[in-house]
Amino acid sequence: MTKPFVRPATIDDMAQVQAIYAHHVMNGSGSFEIEPPDLAEMQRRLAEVQKRNLPFLVAETEGRVAGYAYANLYRTREAYRFTCEDSVYIDPACHKRGLGHALLEALIVDAGARGFKQMVAVIGGSDNSGSIRLHEKHGFARVGLLPKVGFKFDRWHDSVLMQKSL
Ligand SMILES: CC(C)(COP(=O)(O)OP(=O)(O)OC[C@H]1O[C@@H](n2cnc3c(N)ncnc32)[C@H](O)[C@@H]1OP(=O)(O)O)[C@@H](O)C(=O)NCCC(=O)NCCS
After folding, report:
1. Ligand 1: which of 131, 157, 163, 164 to mutate, judged by most atoms within 8 Å of the beta carbon?
2. pLDDT in the model for residue 3
């Protein structure tokens, strides 16, 4: 497989981004959403991230968008303004091929260059070894665990908190 090409997302990418995210919302506990947001909502989220001067990136492989990552404010109150939270989602057909690595690496550099100082990952599920491993590899430290804060697919899910200084 060719090396993924990582670039800023545009509004035209949002249909593919919406499809990738919808899969994970419906099939996994990485996201605590239960109903997949529609295209208009994903376009609104892109605009919000861009307006806040944060990065929203896509990874293209074999000529199509196969994953995306973005950072948004960790919390919106003013004193949190240098702290962002990352999200990374990969097309299930392209897992374990380095797309997560390429996207998270680029996101960290981009958010740091924009003046953000801390990046927090709020990982859905203690059993989400892919996301935990990915963040460990990029220097995130495990800083907390919120047990049983999500209820999805008829069971409780933890949030694993990880953090990296940018
Ligand atoms: C987590 C996720 C983003 C990883 O993306 P990916 O492109 O498959 O990851 P990569 O191929 O770049 O691999 C990253 C590292 O994680 C490891 N990894 C990936 N999936 C794994 C899994 N299911 N179990 C254990 N380790 C896994 C890889 O081996 C690699 O580590 P290594 O360099 O030591 O080999 C992807 O599985 C995904 O979209 N998951 C569902 C959504 C989600 O939970 N997103 C995170 C929200 S914060």
Report:
1. 131
2. 80
Q: For ligand 1, say whether the CB of 101 is within 6 Å of any of its atoms.
A: yes
- CA 155 to centroid of chain Cα atoms: 23
Letter for the amino acid at 134? L
Nearest Cα to 126, choosing from 93, 161, 81? 161
Q: How many CB atoms lie within 10 A of CB 52?
A: 14
Residue 1 in this model has a pLDDT that exceeds 60: no
In the chain, where does DSSP find H-type helix? 14-27, 39-51, 99-113, 129-137
Quote the percentage of the chain above a pLDDT of 70: 99
Domains by residue range for the chain, with CATH: 5-165 (3.40.630.30)
Question: What b-and-e string marks burial along 17-47, b requiring 16 or more CB atoms within 10 Å of the CB?
Answer: bbebbbbbbeebbbbeeeebbeeeebbebbe
61-95: pLDDT as tens digits: 989 999 999 999 999 999 999 999 999 999 999 99
CB of 130 within 6 A of ligand 1: the answer is yes
Q: Is 98 in the pocket of ligand 1 (CB under 6 A)?
A: yes
Would you say the CB of residue 28 lies under 6 angstroms from ligand 1? yes
